[in-house]
Prior knowledge:
- The protein is α/β, with parallel strands linked by helices.
- It folds into 2 domains: about 5-90, 2-Layer Sandwich (Alpha-Beta Plaits); about 100-290, Rossmann fold (3-Layer(aba) Sandwich).
- The chain contains 8 helices and 15 strands.
- The chain has helices spanning about 15-25, 70-80, 145-155, 175-180, 195-205, 230-235, 240-245, 260-270; strands at about 5-10, 30-35, 55-65, 85-90, 110, 115-120, 130-135, 165, 185-190, 210, 220-230, 245-255, 270-275, 280, 285-290.
- Strands 8, 9, 10, 11, 12, 13, 14 and 15 form an 8-stranded mixed sheet that branches.
- A hairpin with a 2-residue loop joins strand 5 and strand 6 (about 115-120).
- Helix 3 (about 145-155) packs parallel to helix 4.
- It is globular and about 55 Å long.
Amino acid sequence: MDYKRIIIIPDGELNDQTCDIALELGAVSASIETVDPEAPWFHEIGEPFWENLAPAQLTCVVPKNLKIENFVDLIAQKSSWGNIPTFRVEDIEDKDWSRVGRDDYGPIMITNNLWIVPTWHQPENSNAVNICLDPGLAFGSGTHATTRLCLEWLAKNIKGNESVMDYGCGSGILAIAAKLLGATMVHGTDIDPQAMQSATMNAELNNVNISLFESDQLENTYDIVIANILANPLKKLSQKISSLTNNSGKIVLSGIMIKQSIDVQKAYSSDFSFKPIDKRGDWVLLEGIKIQ
């Protein structure tokens, strides 16, 4: 397969989760690098653009047939950037990019009883709950701090027979984990059709039944609503997520930096009381219990 390199200069924040978003949308590799000030850049009107560049760039390798403008626009939407970012496209050498980086990924232990196992590896602990997934091919591979926080929470709190909504399911890793850990009804939703397809394939790969819905088709309420997205979308979705949560149910929110946690809690404070935050580096997980 032929590939192109897309180099993106955003007007918003770049972090590891931005790379995850790019992978979800079809990139086979994504990394954050220092900007090359000598290279020509292009804005949405197609004119060279050098001014007001951010200090970092997102570099993605994508299949040549990917719709690049849609790809960049969706990254901007999911990352809550204000505008379509500056970007350039380069042809690259022929290489099996889908295999690049495999040596960097082995089985990932989340807890003693929960592992993420790449499809090309055998489980290290056959008695554990093993989620089979291709890191780098879909959003949420278990390597990002926010994904790990959510997985650890599920491993600790799923006791069996719960109903769970994975809001912004991406690869489906959290929904799959919830089902394998004992939840009986697990649903998911995402704004990106490609993510929904990825979640469906990953659920089949793990032999679990996960029901996926468009967000406007959601009618149930759930014991647990888990959302690992980003702070600004979480604030905007507070009423929707609250409406999906049972009385005395729980919300689990991540994709939030420490400095953003107070504002996110305020957005939900009328309906939920929060436990002390769980931190991992600069990232946090918020657990709220619905107020009756």
